[in-house]
Amino acid sequence: MKRRAIFFSSIAAAMLVFMAAAVAGAERENKTSSLGALWSSAKEEGDDLGGPPTTVQEEEERHLDGGFSTLEGMLQWSIGHSDPEKLKEAALDIERLSSQDLKQRQELMDKLKTPSDAELMKIAINDLNNLSISLDDRHRALQELLILVEPIDNANELHKLGGLTAVIKDLNHSNPDIRTISAWILGTASQNNLFVQNQILELGTLAKLMEIAHSDFIEEAIKALYAISALIRNNPEGQQLFYKEAGDLMLQKILSNSSIDIRLHRKSVFLLADLVDCQLQSRSDTQLPFSSNHILLKSVVDLTASADLDLQEKALYAVKSLLMLRSTDALVFKDICELDLVLGRMKQQLLQLILDDQYKEYALDVENLRKEVELIFHRKLEKGKPTFTQQLGLTALQ
Ligand SMILES: *[C@@H]1O[C@H](CO)[C@@H](O)[C@H](O)[C@H]1NC(C)=O
Ligand SMILES: *[C@@H]1O[C@H](CO)[C@@H](O)[C@H](O)[C@H]1NC(C)=O
Ligand SMILES: *[C@@H]1O[C@H](CO)[C@@H](O)[C@H](O)[C@H]1NC(C)=O
Ligand SMILES: *[C@@H]1O[C@H](CO)[C@@H](O)[C@H](O)[C@H]1NC(C)=O
């Protein structure tokens, strides 16, 4: 809040100087356009600093600080309160300015320039490291960082500026909103960015995020899961670490809990499918812990019966990928997950849905996917049989 008040008052001072100069140079320059340019560039900057939606309360606080709630308001005020004679006088004064004064004015103008993203990140990180900062200010600093780390170049700078350490520390904060936004920042910074993914993984943050994913504060759990996915996506080492930290149990716990928020189910199913696809693409023979986790497999199959169409489709897709893993056993899908029954019921439901114009297109798509899953499942069952009898044969020989 202090920072912003100072920012606005420095604009106000500069604006008055600038207006006086504009009057002086009225013959040479187009006054409206130069003022207009400053106005709009300052406004842009103000918006940037404002970050996420400003609350009514914040607006009020700004007034209490003696600042202006908007730059337009301030401009109107300064124009309304300016005496044309005085402005002209000021203009003459400016013409007489010594070079020292001019330099000062230049410095003032330089300050008005949009601070670089790195500078803004430094300010926010400095605030995070300040233990006497208020909860509101901490929240605001985190929100600013959340926006700042979106561009990949900024994300790459974050650790160098001490940002990762500061944000990771806030995963431990007693306030769930602070923890939520901290997890969100880590996810945003590491999204599609191997460099930042590895930096965060090396700081040992994955286990903490996996713990937070079980939080009773749903928003926090969702953002933690988002961060976990962003952190290990297309990152084989990250995925190994995830398995080592019992990632399959984390997913099992979420997927098998029928009373949990559906967004957590969606995110978990998506993560699971992504991990399995990654394994399929790598053609690696290492066995994923999912393959033998029957509770997890059954939970995913059960979610294909979800009333939420999006979740239903995601779960069906995950089942398809799981079936394609060489290490999963078709008999587990048949006997434990009762996939035949589930697919049969789903077929009936989709045939009904196809009759409804609103859902027809979706239902046709999912029915195609369902048929594909059925085919893969039955082929896998066929393939499984000889191995099974061979095993029986071997046992008999021993
Ligand atoms: C001054 O700038 C304004 C806005 O760009 C423009 O509409 C106007 O024609 C300009 N006037 C002169 C005298 O150049
Ligand atoms: C820390 O925050 C307090 C309260 O906002 C402020 O007075 C102090 O100057 C800050 N310290 C640093 C080092 O920024
Ligand atoms: C978070 O808290 C735990 C337990 O109190 C502690 O072991 C850990 O070092 C803390 N992590 C950070 C980053 O402060
Ligand atoms: C299932 O989720 C609910 C809601 O988040 C939670 O309160 C409950 O403890 C969870 N149950 C288990 C067995 O984890």
Compact overview of the structure:
Residues 1-26 form the signal peptide. With 398 residues, the chain is mainly alpha-helical.
Task: List its salient traits.
single chain, 398 residues, mainly alpha, Leucine-rich Repeat Variant, elongated, disordered N terminus, disordered C terminus, binds 2-acetamido-2-deoxy-beta-D-glucopyranose, ARM-type_fold
Helix content: over 70%
- Major sheet summary line: none
Percent in strands: under 5%
Per the principal axes of the C-alpha atoms, what is the gross shape?
elongated
Rg, alpha carbons: 30 Å
What's the pLDDT, averaged over the residues? 80
Q: Helix tally?
A: 22
Report the strand count.
0
> Which structural class fits the helix and strand makeup?
mainly alpha
Query: What is the C-level CATH assignment of the domain at 117-233?
Result: Mainly Alpha
CATH superfamily of the domain at 117-233: Leucine-rich Repeat Variant
State the end-to-end distance. 79 Å
Q: Which cofactors or ions or other ligands sit in this model? A: 2-acetamido-2-deoxy-beta-D-glucopyranose
- N-to-C SSE string, H for helix and E for strand: HHHHHHHHHHHHHHHHHHHHHH
Low-confidence stretches: 1-12, 23-69, 391-398
> Looking at CATH, which topology of the domain at 117-233 would you report?
Leucine-rich Repeat Variant
CATH architecture identity of the domain at 117-233: Alpha Horseshoe
